Structure formats: C-alpha cells, structure tokens
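thread: overnight batch results

M.L. [08:02]
morning all. the overnight job finished for the chain we discussed friday. pasting input first so we're all looking at the same thing
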Amino acid sequence: MVDVKNEMRYILVTRLLERAAEAGLLSAEELCTAKGLALERYRPATVWE
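M.L. [08:03]
and the structure it wrote out:
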C-alpha cells in the first residue's frame, strides 16, 4: 500500500532541498546527504518501483 502522506512529504522535502542548493545554501555534497536522509525517513514507494 502506498502511503500518500510520505510520498508527498518526500517530494516537498526534496524540492525544498534542491531550491536551497540552487540558492547556494547547500553544497552538492550536503544536498546528496540530505536527500539520502529524506529517502531513509520517508521511503517513498515510487522511488523503488
């Protein structure tokens, strides 16, 4: 079963992280690490399918 809340949270968090990186607030390494943490936290099913 797909957890829609977690899917939406994952999408929102990763988009915010990408925007922060574009604004120069995160380095490429920090962005990669943060996305990995978001993936662990929210485990979106669509990423794995």
